[in-house]
Amino acid sequence: MDAWIWWLIAAVGLGIPLVLTAMPEFGMLAMGGVAGAVTAGLGGGMVPQVLVFAVVSSALIAVVQPIARRSRRQHPKLSSGVDALTGRQATVLERVDGQGGRIKLAGEVWSARALDTGEAYEPGAQVDVVEIDGATAVVMR
pTM value? Predict the structure, then answer.
């Protein structure tokens, strides 16, 4: 069997763990195997084939991994539950002051209090949710 066929078999063999483990390094090694097969197909000897495999695999790992790491870090954090309510706007239903009140937030009625105890917000006013303290939304304008 020709050397290029062995390189393709190696590339497929390296692609299988990529699918099973989702480790992208195996895919980069498989691409190195394809590059080795191309080198063999063009008539390169065993030493150039192995060098091309090593250089292509190493280059892909060195270039792609930092880009992938950076991409993973840049995704915004997804908030859920009460954390997702912070920063949203609400409508005052009952007067809200430092002691309490009621707002409509995300389609639900919440107890609320003003962040600044000296402030008061009348029904119909739009307020911003600063934080959720237990079952009470802390709001400000």
Answer: 0.50
